[in-house]
Amino acid sequence: MDFDKNKNADAKNPIQYDDNVKDLVVARLETLPSGVVISIGSGKELTKNEAIQSVKEGNETGQKMMEIEMSFLQGLKDGILYDEAFAFN
Amino acid sequence: MTKRLLLTRPDHDYATRYLSAWAEKFFDLAKKKGCSIIDLRRERANFKEVESVLQKRKPCFVIINGHGDDDLVTGYKNEMLLRAGFNSSLLQGKITYAISCRSARVLGEEAGQYENTAYIGYKDDFILIYLEECRTRPAEDKLAGLFLDPSNLVASSLLKGHTAGKSVLRARQEFFRNIQKLLTSKTKTEDSSILRYLLWDMKNLTLCGNGDKKI
C-alpha cells in the first residue's frame, strides 16, 4: 500500500493549493464538532474557527490542514479504507 | 535482570498535558511485566537528565512524549532532548517510541541504522483532537482517546512481549478500528469528521530499524 501520494512534498514546504481547494477544505472543516481543539505541529492548538481562519489565510498551519484534507480525499478516491480493511482482516 | 523503561513527560502545554496523562495508563502494565519505570516528568524532562539516564541506567525501552521536528525530539518547554547527528547514538540497542511530530523522518531514520535498534515514531505531524471542556481532566477525554489509545498500544504491545514491527501493526489496526467505528451509521456526522485525522496518524506511524526487536 502506498500512503505517500505526496512524497515530494516536504513537511516544511507543503504543496501550494489553489482557492478551489481552500474553499473545499473550509467547507469540510465546518463539519467538525464545535468545542474541539486540533493539536497540530509543535505546540499549535486550534479551535475549529481558528483552523478555518488559518486555511482562509493560507498560512503554514492552513497549508498543513489542506494537505491533511487532500490526503484523506485522495485516499478515499484510491480506496484506502478498503485496502486497510483487507490488510488488517 | 529488571528491564528499565525511560519515559519523558513534559506538561508545559495542553498537548503535552494530554500525552503525559495518557502515558500513566500503561504504568500498571509496565510494573506487572517487571519493568522499572524511570519517569522524567515536568521539568525533569530535560536534556541533562535524559542523557544521564540513557548513559548510566541503560533503559531497554524509551518513550518520548513531547514535541518534535524532523531531526529532534524535545522535552519540558521544548528543550532539545535527542537530535540526529548529535546524540542519537544514545538510542543504540534500544527500542524508542516517540509520540511527537515528524521525528521518524530524520532522527528515527538515523537511530534505526544502529545495530539492534528500533525507533517508532511519526513521519509527519502527530495530530491530536481533544475537547476544550476536558482540558483540565485530559485522561477522561474520550475523543482524545480515539487517538491516544492506539498510540498507547505501541507501548503496551511492546511491554507484552511483541516485536517492534508487530506493535506498530497492532497500533495501526487499532487506529483503523476507531476509523471504522466513526463510519457506522450510529455515529453523528460531526463526530465522523475527525476520522481524517485518525487516518493521518495511522499512515504516519512508522517503524525505523529492527522490526524483530523486543524489549
Explain what this protein looks like in three dimensions.
The complex is a heterodimer of chains A (89) and B (215). Chain A has 89 residues and is mostly helical. Chain A has one domain (19-84). Chain A has four helices and two strands; from the N terminus they run αββααα. Chain A has a two-stranded antiparallel sheet. The two termini of chain A are 15 Å apart. Chain B has 215 residues and is an alpha/beta fold. Chain B has one domain: Rossmann fold (3-Layer(aba) Sandwich). Helix content of chain B is 40%, strand content 22%. Chain B has a six-stranded mixed beta sheet, sandwiched between helices. In chain B, helix 1 crosses helix 5 and helix 6 (164-183) packs antiparallel against helix 8. Chain B is globular, with a radius of gyration of 16 Å. Chain A binds chain B through residues 3, 11-12, 28, 31-33, 35-43, 45, 47, 64, 68-69, 71-72, 75, 80-81, 84-85, 88, and chain B through 13-15, 18, 67-70, 74, 78, 101-102, 105, 124-125, 127-133, 135, 143, 172-173, 176, 179-180, 183, 188-191, 193-194, 196-197, 199-200, 202-203.
